[in-house]
Amino acid sequence: MQHPLRALMVSGATLALAGLGITAPALAAPSGPPAVLHVGQIGRQTVAAHGNCEPDTLVEPDIAVSPFNTKIEVAVAHDCRFASGGSVDIFYAWTNDGGAHWHQSRLPGLTRAVGGTYDRASDPVVAFGADGSVYISSLVFDVTCPTAVAVSRSTDGGATFGLPVLAQHSNTCAVSDDKNWLVADTQPNSPFFGRIYQFWTEFLANGTSPQVVRWSDNQGKTWSSTHVIDRKDFAQNSQPFVQPDGAVTDTYLFAGSAFGDGIRQGFILRNGTNAGSGTSVVAQTSFDGGATWTKPTVVARNIGGGPAGIRCCLPLMEGDHATGRMFQVWNANGPGVLDAVEISSSTDGGQHWSGPVQVTPGHSPGIQYINAAVATAAGRVFVSYGRRDLANPNVIQQELTWSDNGGATFATPIVLGPPSNLRYAAVAGGKFPGDYSGLSATPARVAGAWTLASKPPNPAAAFHQVLYAATLRT
């Protein structure tokens, strides 16, 4: 029997669900440069400072645009960051008018500060499900142990969220969960249409860190058992994408030895001249809904980390839901490579990947980049990043570029918002805008989210890092 929502999406009909107008419009391919519709601050710390968290800090954002109603966007971030890892709670913001006005709140039930049972929360990721629900995945943990991966769901476009469901929890200090990522199957032709996949890294007492996955077929109410992608891996940072036929490709970092600088900090790529040594991005694909996975194939080698003194810069991957073409971006500042953002693509379901293409212009040794993110829709590829000129090393300027030829070349970037001043940024193993930033695209809209630090309103304060977002017409 065909899933009723799948039938509506295939026909392009409109479904009224949870107060949202859900459609699958057929839009013409974009032309010309994307037009900035809205850009500005969308949020500031909402939760009361607790313990020794760094007050007035939002960190590590993600953002998603609804594929059914592009006026709806949801962004997430750490809310009052601890230098030793995690935050007091997870911040979220939503708009239902395409970014003209934003509303902000904090997720209920995650940490003790908001009625939950864990000390801290971290690593927020947001995605829209096949029925228009909004899902936020968060890592939660106690200062010692255990850890868990929680999923919160909204049925009103991100205005409110229910209490979280634990997709995974560890009852022993021998297993530490980290770097969660969530993706939903919204592909009408997929046999697993509607499934939600929850990926994360298991740091084990034997030093290995395999990538693992669970899934839910009932909107996150219950979850499958854990399936290991590759048991031998020293891996981190799953970046899954659901192809048009329902196959799931996951790209992740792989190294020949254990990752990390401690389980509470998670994986931080080494900075400076030794960044990226021995670290690759690899891909594996599942054709049976996450139960079994192909052997790894290399996407890119010599993956770099962030500039010295800045904690940042995990590689990110996204694909085009119409064509299935996937794009992986990373910081290329490994041995023998000048600072740049590079991209690779796959047109055959993740089996083979193109050679690296430089996204950022020029080869100036005085320019550095942080937190490259990628999104793609209707044949257009977008890449955002922060640009740093060593002539003024505290300043980071957010930029966005795009490609209309499959990532072969990229246009002159657009500057987004005012510059960020790292002097007032959160600190965690270096100045800390986050290990990643957010970018999301539909055929009609592209939206980005990043943190911006500036001089605090209170002259005696040390921190002032808020969340910025931009919405552009593609």
Q: Which properties best describe this structure?
A:
1 helix, about 475 residues, mainly beta, disordered N terminus, Neuraminidase, four-stranded antiparallel beta sheet, five-stranded antiparallel beta sheet
Low-confidence stretches: 1-5, 7-27, 261-276
CATH topology: Neuraminidase
Oligomeric grouping of the chains: single chain
Structural class: mainly beta
Q: How many domain modules?
A: 1
- The CATH class turns out to be Mainly Beta
Overall shape: it is globular
Query: Percent of residues in helical segments?
Result: under 10%
Strand content: 35-45%
Distance between the termini: 36 Å
CATH architecture: 6 Propeller
* Major sheet details: 5 strands, antiparallel
Query: In total, how many beta strands?
Result: 31
From the alpha-carbon coordinates, what is the Rg to the nearest angstrom?
Answer: 20 Å
Average pLDDT taken over every residue: 89
Tally of helical segments: 1
Give structural notes.
With 474 residues, this protein is an all-beta fold. It has a single domain (34-473), classed as Neuraminidase (6 Propeller), CATH 2.120.10. The protein contains 1 helix and 31 strands. It has one helix at 4-11, and strands spanning 15-17, 20-22, 35-43, 58-65, 73-81, 87-95, 103-106, 120-128, 134-141, 147-154, 165-169, 175-184, 196-204, 211-216, 227-228, 234-242, 248-255, 279-286, 297-300, 316-319, 326-331, 341-346, 357-358, 367-377, 380-389, 395-403, 414-415, 420-421, 438-441, 445-453, 465-473. Strands 24, 25, 26, 27 and 28 form a 5-stranded antiparallel β-sheet that branches. 57% of the residues are buried.
